[in-house]
Write a structure and sequence with these properties.
4 helices
Length: 193
């Protein structure tokens, strides 16, 4: 089987981190490898990719087959495009200088796209945080007004209770004592049949 350019998983559970390696096609995913040519961290936005261009192109020209994910990574970083341009130079379609100019123009355009995506992502995060902060302020204000309203109700009830408790004492001092009833009234018992 030919050699493969594949990802080798590292990192904790739920926090993947990958090494980009050259390995025999029969070797297990995290098993023996021939050479490490880069790293890939998918948790960052945009993903951090560190790859050795020259080693990757050398292995591609030797016939190493990249897996689907690694092929996407190589296309994203420009390794496949540079390999394509070198094949054109070997066939005589262009010179080395022309190929390098095309590759540098492509890289500048790609870096501009990546930086714009990064800025857009950071702005989205800032906007989301700002909205969360504004919502939290609104909730806090609503809670504070509810608490103030409840405290005002409790204070009003306490004042009414104090006024009510003080009023009968004042009336009792001013009013003459009531006279006792002349005869006690007895309730009639119901007749049993």
């Amino acid at each position: 089987m030919p050699t493969k350019i594949r990802l080798q998983r590292r990192g904790k559970r739920g926090q993947p981190f990958y090494h980009i390696v050259i390995a025999d096609g029969r070797a297990p995913r995290d098993g023996k490898f021939i050479e490490k040519i880069g790293t890939y961290n998918p948790l960052t936005r945009p993903a951090d990719i560190d790859i050795d261009f020259n080693k990757a192109i050398t292995w591609l020209t030797k016939g190493a087959q990249p897996t689907d994910t690694v092929k996407a990574i190589l296309a994203y970083t420009g390794v496949l495009y540079k390999n394509h341009l070198q094949k054109g130079v070997q066939k005589g379609a262009m010179t080395e200088e022309q190929a390098e100019i095309k590759f540098q123009a492509w890289m500048q355009e790609k870096q501009a796209k990546i930086s714009s995506k990064k800025k857009e992502y950071e702005l989205n995060i800032k906007d989301a945080r700002k909205k969360l902060h504004e919502n939290e302020i609104k909730l806090n204000e609503a809670k504070a007004s509810a608490v103030a309203k409840k405290r005002a109700e409790v204070a009003a009830a306490q004042q009414a209770a104090a006024a009510h408790a003080a009023a009968p004492v004042a009336v009792a001092e001013e009013a003459p004592a009531p006279e006792a009833p002349a005869e006690p009234v007895q309730a009639e018992e119901p007749k049993q049949e």
